[in-house]
Amino acid sequence: MKLNFSGLRALVTGAGKGIGRGTVKALHASGAKVVAVTRTNADLVSLTKEVRHTALPWPGPQGYIRSWLGQSLTQATKQCLSQCPGIEPVCVDLGDWEATEKALRNIGPVDLLVNNAGVTLVQPFIESTKEVFDRSFNVNVRSVLQVSQVVAKGMISRGVAGSIVNISSMVAYVTFPGLTTYSSTKGALTMLTKAMAMELGPHKIRVNSVNPTVVLTDMGKKVSANPNFAKKLKQRHPLRKFAEVEDVVNSILFLLSDSSASTTGSSILVDAGYLAS
Ligand code: NDP
Fold first, then answer.
1. Whose CB among 103, 116, 124, 261 lies 3.0–4.6 Å from 20's, allowing a Cys bridge?
2. Per-residue pLDDT band at 53 (split at 50, 70, 90)
3. Residues with Cβ within 8 Å of residue 107, at least 6 apart in sequence
4. pTM (2 decimals)?
5. Which atom of ligand 1 is nearest to the CA of 138?
6. Which of 64, 173, 182, 274 is labelled catalytic?
7. Which atom from ligand 1 is nearest to the alpha carbon of 94?
8. Residue pLDDT, tens place only, 132-159
9. How far apart are CA 194 and CA 190, in angstroms?
10. One-character DSSP codes across 94-107
11. What does the alpha-carbon distance between residue 93 and residue 40 come to, in Å, rounded to a whole number?
12. Is 182 one of the annotated active-site residues of the chain?
C-alpha cells in the first residue's frame, strides 16, 4: 500500500522484529520520520543499517567501489552513509514502567503511534503463574496505556489530530489451549482501544486495532511450532493460509492514514476468514 506520510512523525513499539519492523520500514518508505522503540539494541542497529541501505541512492557498481574506497560520493549518498535519515532508535523494556517513562520523557511530537510490542508466554490455564500473567499484562496492555498517554498528551497540547493503532490478535475473540493469559491481554486491549477512542475522539485522535491470525514471525513460528497443529489450523482458515507481515502492515497504514478518517474504536481482522468459519 502506498500512502504519503511526509511531514509526519510516527512511533512504533516492538520495532526490532516481525510486524513492528515491517511497519517501521513501510512508514519510512512512505515519508514519515519514525521513532523505533524496542528491547534489543542489536535489532535497532540492524534495522537502521537495513533502512539506510534501502534509502541509499543506487550509485551503480562503480559507485559502490568508489564508495568502498571512500572516493567521490554524491551528496545524497554521503548523507545516507553518515546517518539513517528518518529513523530514531530508542532501546527500552516496555514492561518496565519507570524505564519507559525515562526513555520517552523527551520523545517530542508524535502524530502516528503503533503499539505493537507484545509477548506470547504459553501456559495452560491450570499452570498459569503470577510472573507470566504480570509480565504479559505489563508488556501487552499496560505499556499501551503508558506509551499512548505520553503520545496523546503531546498531541492534545499541540492541538493536532492523530492516529493510534494497537496490534491485538484474533485471539481477542477466540482462544487456543495454552493462550489463557495471552488472549486475555488481547481481549483487554480491545476494550482499552474502545475506551481510548471514546476519550480521545473529541481531541481528533483516532484509536483502532488490527487483529491478525498467525503471522510467521519469530512469535508466530513459536506458537505454531507443532507441524500437525499448524497444518490443521491453516486448513480451518477459509483462505487456507495464515497472514503475511505485509497484510498486517497494510491494515496498520490504512488505519493510520486519513483514508480511515471516520473510523475509531474499531478493529480490522486480518484473519484469512478464521472468525467466519
Ligand atoms: P515478534 O516476537 O516477532 O516481535 C515482537 C517485537 O516486540 C520484538 O522486536 C520484541 O523485542 C519487541 N518487544 C517484545 N517485548 C518488548 C518489551 N517488553 N519492550 C520492548 N519491546 C518488546 O512478534 P510479532 O511481530 O509477531 O508480533 C507483533 C505484535 O503482533 C504483538 O503484539 C503480537 O501479540 C501481535 N500478533 C502476532 C501474531 C503472530 O502470529 N505473529 C498474531 C496476532 C497478533 P525482543 O525480541 O527484543 O523482545
1. 116
2. confident
3. 11, 35, 90, 150, 151, 154
4. 0.92
5. 18
6. 182
7. 19
8. 999 999 999 999 999 999 999 999 999 9
9. 7
10. TT-HHHHHHHHTT-
11. 8
12. yes
